[in-house]
Amino acid sequence: MKHLLFFIGLICSFGVQAQLTNISVETYQVHDGVNIPELDGFTTYHVYANTTSSTDFVSSVFGDSENELIFSSAGTVYHSDPSYEYGNEPLTALFSVLPELEWDSWLTIGMMTGSDNGALSNVGMDDVMDSFDTTGDFYINDPIGGAWFYPGFPCGITPVAECANQYSAFGGEDNKVLLAQITTDGSFTGVFNVQVFVGGDQENSVYHTGIGFSTDPNDVFGCTDVTATNFNSEATVDDFSCTLPCSLTLVVDSLYSPTCYGDNDGAVFISSTGAQGADDYYLGVDDEVASNFGYFNNLIAGDYYVEVVDGVGCMSSATVTVPETEAVTLTATLTEGISCFNMNDATIEVSNAMGGSGSLGFYLLGFPETVSSSTVFSDLGSGAYSVVAIDENGCSGMSFATSVNNPPEVHVQILNSSPASCADDIADGFITCAAWGGAAPETLVLSIDGVSVTSPISVTAGTYSVIATDVNGCIANSDEWDNSPVVIGPDAIDINASSNPVACTDDANGSISWAPVGGVGNFTVVVDTTDVTGSTMMDLAPGIYNITVTDGNGCTNNEDVEVLNAAPIVAASVVTAASCNGLSDGVVDLSATGGTGMFQHSDDGNTFVEGAAFDGLSAGDYTFYVQDENGCISEVDASVTEPEPIEISGIVSEGEDTGNAVIDISVTGGTPGYSYVWTGPGVDGMTSADLEGLSTGAYIVEVTDLAGCSMSTTFNVVTSLYELEGGVEAKVYPNPSSGLFNISWTGFTEGYVDFTIIDALGRQVTSGKWLVSNSSFETVLDLNGLENGLYRLSFIANGIPSSIQLVKAH
User: 10 vs 756, which has greater pLDDT?
Assistant: First the structure.
């Protein structure tokens, strides 16, 4: 607990008169379980620090490895849910609702509720209170320690005598300060250490250590270890005051090497066994400042004296060695020198790299950002290089500098030359040159256009550069010395031939041209086997022509030139048929390949336009024309088709009852996928193909095909039941009919009935007579010999003229 008072801001003084007489335990409440069944058999005790003065101020209760603190219970220590841990936490307002909270077990300095004057804090008590809550016991004996304490001092400028009556941390009238409330069904003992401000003076602080207390007034506190030099045979409770024979042993836990060779960040970690009370650690024979922990850092490699002394003066020591970290070392060697002057292709390789920690990385001195695991450094120019190796801890070592030298530069110079007569013909010119430098100058090789040569060099006319190459492939060009290639003799003859193609396929209107340069001039020209003058030959058919040019020295050159044939125009058409029979909305789209340039199009061969689409066409055969920019023309035929006309046929029939006629139609032609719209009595807007349940009237159907083409037809329906004059009824079926009409009559008087058949033009086409034997009879009227159409059956019904319309149809 050496550093505890620094945490709570208190000042220690020694040699003052003791102000704490003892720690007492008083019974506060014996529980019978009537109001709180779970506390049946429990007793609540108050633990007090007894002072010698009402102004003595209890500042803290503490424990550490030197002054151990313990609380031990033989029974169950009561903790409510939720559990209070300190005396400034209980809220009296909750006691009426949760009465068990009033009897919780907690630690304090004077305070019993959150409304009491005072303050309470703690340090290092988390694990202590966990043990208290779960087991009912707690123990503080570590070097850092723990405490519950009054933060600061409450009086300020108020006189202590007046202030002491206001705060329960003072001894007060009864010279008692509450330290704990314990509710248990058994007994308990404890040893506390208490700090007191004598008379409320912060500068006059007294520490009372090893003060025991118990629920049993007969308990005696003292050393209970029979092996101790201060064994108390009458003691019933040990108060940690035993002094035992020395058994202190220093233990070396860990030794840590410095991170890098020569660094001072090594460490020694030591501990001890058998210590009595606090254990203080020292590094070096002259170390006078004790350390609570055996952790010594910032050490270089080497031997160190370490020592531990416990609370009763026992000592143990040892000499320990901080291991040395192996230095990082390496060797750098030039394995590949610079091949050619001023090239950057040298290589340095690392070997014998060792030491440090973990794997090594490498970089060239001055370039730490390029560190890698590679031990090969290539593409180096001339200079001095040192390689740095670095380990995983950042420790490094460096090689000696390695020199990379620049080899001599290769040179080649043309010393003399003599011109040749012709280019690419007779090698009667020569070049004399000299070469030096590079690796092994005596091995330099000369070449022209990749062919090895020796000086003097025989050449034809032309422009030449001489290349010198050493054994490393380093080269020099004579142009670099003489600033430009050497010219030997006249230039080669360049014919500069060109051609123009024929205008249209297989025409004979192409041409070729030539414009020779080089040589010595005075050119003559032969095309195939024909001597020609001028620079052009006209009216040529497609083909290849050879042009030979000879200069004044008799040097020649020839070149083939081709007169290209014009690509034939290939015309094509895409036809869109007329949408409906008889409509003029067909379209022909033209396209073409070949020819020259852009195309124009025509439907008569005379007038040409850019557009390639011709519309508004009726069904029929057409010829179209495509013309290119040279006036070449190609023809293409196209046929515009149209769908068959829409034809509507139908059968009109009716049953025996009026209003039960049926129209059944069939459609051909057009583009299948027909739709229907009817107009007529009771059927306006109907869209089915057939109708039924019809009465007399005209019915019009409009048929539209998938292309939108339409056709209309009218069907006339005449019902079969007629109410005539004179009470006569006639029932005609079928009507329409293909020829035979069945007629049932009722209401006639006996006798003969004369009838006539009148066509639509009012002409009588037939007549006859029926014999009526009673008021009802049936007859068949045969019109098979007549054309299809409308007819009227006229007769005398009981002396009154009447008629019925008949329809003859397929």
Answer: 756
H or E segment at 509? none
In whole angstroms, give the CA distance from residue 642 to residue 618.
Answer: 8
Clarify whether residues 376 and 442 are in a common domain: no
Element at 7 (helix H, strand E): helix 4-8
Residue 516 vs residue 477, higher pLDDT:
516
DSSP conformation class of 143:
S
Q: What is the distance between the alpha carbons of residues 149 and 122, in angstroms, rounded to a whole number? A: 6
Q: What is the DSSP letter of 609?
A: B
In 10 A of CB 447, how many CB atoms?
16
Rounded to two decimals, the pTM is: 0.42
Report the phi/psi class of residue 156: left, alpha or beta, with left for phi > 0 and alpha for psi in -120 to 50: left
Mean pLDDT within 748-760: 84
Structural domain range at position 291: 249-322
Of 431, 427, 493, nearest to 457 (Cα)? 431
Residue that finishes a domain, picked among 322, 350, 365:
322
* Cα separations in angstroms, 548 against 410, 523, 525, 532, 541: 44, 10, 6, 10, 20
Residue ending a domain, choose from 522, 543, 563: 563
Residue in this structure with the two tokens 């009802």, named with its chain if needed: 776
What is the number of domains present in the chain? 8
Beta-bridge partner residues of 623: 637
In Å, how far from its chain's centre is CA 613?
Answer: 51
Strands 429-436 and 121-123, by their bridges, are unpaired
- Tokens 């019009």 belong to residue: 700
Dist. CA 190–CA 23, nearest whole Å: 10
Cis before 245 (ω within 30)? no
Smallest CA-to-CA distance from 601 within 555, 577, 635 is with 635
**Range scoring the smallest mean pLDDT among 55-69, 123-137, 434-448:** 434-448
Assigned domain for 158 exists: yes
Does 13 score more than 80 pLDDT? no
Closest CA to 613 of 588, 638, 634, 592: 588
Co-location of 355 and 271 in the same domain: no
Predicted pLDDT of residue 369: 87
Note the pLDDT tens digit of each residue in 578-592: 989 999 999 999 999
Give the pLDDT of residue 232.
Answer: 92
Do the beta carbons of residue 343 and residue 367 sit within 8 Å?
Answer: no
Q: Is the pLDDT of residue 12 over 70?
A: no
- Whether 235 and 221 have beta carbons less than 8 Å apart is answered as yes
User: Cis (ω within 30 of 0) for the bond into 82?
Assistant: yes
Q: Are 548 and 538 in contact (CB under 8 A)?
A: no
What type of residue sits at position 336? E
* Average pLDDT of the residues in 502-507: 91
802 domain residue, yes or no: yes
> Three-state SS for 292?
coil
Q: For residues 677 and 648, give the distance between their C-alpha atoms in angstroms, rounded to a whole number.
A: 13
Phi, psi of 47 (to 5 degrees): -105, 125
